[in-house]
Amino acid sequence: MAKFVGSISLGLLTGVSYTLSTLSIPSLLSLPSAQTAYNTFLRLQSQSLFHLRTLSAISATSFLAAYLISPRYAQHPYLLWTTLVVGLSAGSDLWFSRDARIILVKENRRRQQHQQRDGASQLESSEDDMGFEGIGATPQQHQQQQQPNGEEVKNAMERFQLAQTVRGLIGGLGFVMSVVGIWGDGY
Q1: What is the pTM of this model?
Q2: How many CA atoms lie within 13 A of 168 on its CB side?
């Protein structure tokens, strides 16, 4: 039973990675506004990584448990190899998307600093009744400070897309291994 749960969750993991890399990220890259793309990408990234990590954990745990609880004659090495491939799949995501996370963290910090500065500027400008936010800044300059850097957002999305492509390929290899292994077991 654990072999089937592992195989199904590994198949879902592969499908989600494939969908992210071929459909979702290219659609986000075509959005006209960096702000919209940035907000959507942050949400997509946080939601998808939660589900991908959950599927990876379920799959790896299932294959390892199937190996450990099987009688000695049924402890096939493909279960360990498939567990290793699932681990590599999760590790590839960490390796390839670390730059994307760094870029987005820097972008997020930059935006928070602007918001803190703008909060202080708003207090000062409201006391002076200047009529716009920020000391010495026009409303257009203030709006430009709030916009995320489009190139950094694009680079982060492309790194995430590469990570999901590699994760999907490695996960697909693991899925094929698990299906062939289950077939070889005679189920």
Answers
A1: 0.71
A2: 14
